[in-house]
Design a protein that fits this description.
alpha/beta, globular, 271 residues, six-stranded parallel sheet, 12 helices, Rossmann fold, single chain
Length: 271
């Protein structure tokens, strides 16, 4: 946590990171006059790890966000999300837009755009791991082997500006993933999503236009999520700004922290 005041910026991290991923943003946003919370998502860090897929359905994750919003008691809520945190943020805006002042998304596709892109090989070939994560126990064994060696390789392969992802931070991510029960919890996000936990229910509900002012920052060197996920995004978001960052990858806020901080703070101040 950082900063004080009645304007809360709630930052939601992605897989396989934790609240530490926002280390470059906390003080920048606090200095701009915002109160900043960056919690660990359910199952990450020292949080509880409920058993069963329903505990990781999008509705359960949205309840966690609502609990934080209520606890904050702030008059303005700015929701910021990266990767899985961004997916949660999209769903929150779809279902509880009236609670938000603004939405900031970093390399996380709108659910309707991602559904469309998965029908094309250009994204399907990047998303092979989602299918692999559905297998019981095998992904946990692979990702935890050699003290999270593959977790470390994810950051080595997908970080563009390596000087901003020091070895100590990667080691922390590896250690937290290898804690008892942590990987099952982290992978259950993907398992619940494909077994009726959010995506199918939202498809039945439809995709109402999001009128909340929305900023999307996208690292174009993302190896997991292609830039076509941005196509026709304005069909689903009425008040949209998109910043494409050529020298950043999936972990955009860690690849180019100074630019991300500048883009977010400037955009918020101009609302």
């Amino acid at each position: 946590m950082a900063g004080t005041g009645d304007r809360l910026v709630l930052c939601l991290h992605g897989f396989p990171e934790c609240a530490l991923s926002w280390r470059y943003q906390l003080h920048s946003l606090a200095e701009a006059g915002y109160r900043v919370w960056a919690p660990n998502l359910r199952g990450y860090g020292e949080t509880t790890r409920p058993v069963g897929l329903e505990a990781y359905a999008i509705e359960a994750l949205l309840e966690d966000v609502s609990g934080l919003v209520t606890a904050a008691g702030a008059s303005q809520i700015i929701l910021v999300g990266h990767d899985w945190g961004g997916i949660i943020a999209w769903y929150y805006a779809l279902r509880y837009a009236e609670r938000l002042k603004a939405l900031v998304i970093l390399n996380a596709p709108h659910p309707a755009c991602f559904e469309r892109e998965l029908q094309h090989w250009r994204q399907l070939r990047r998303s092979w791991y989602i299918g692999m994560f559905q297998i019981p126990r095998l992904p946990e064994a692979a990702l935890s082997a050699s003290q999270g060696y593959i977790i470390g390789k994810i950051f080595e392969r997908m970080t563009i500006q390596r000087e901003h992802m020091p070895d100590a931070i990667v080691q922390h991510y590896r250690q937290q993933a290898c804690a008892p029960g942590a990987l099952t919890a982290m992978l259950n996000y993907y398992r619940a999503a494909l077994r009726g936990g959010g995506a199918l229910r939202q498809r039945r509900l439809g995709y109402p236009t999001i009128d909340v002012p929305t900023l999307v920052l996208w690292g174009l060197q993302d190896q997991a999520l292609g830039p076509h996920n941005l196509d026709a995004l304005n069909h689903f978001v009425s008040n949209l700004a998109v910043v494409r960052m050529a020298n950043a990858g999936h972990f955009v806020h860690e690849d180019e922290p100074d630019r991300v901080n500048h883009e977010v703070v400037t955009w918020l101040q101009n609302l």
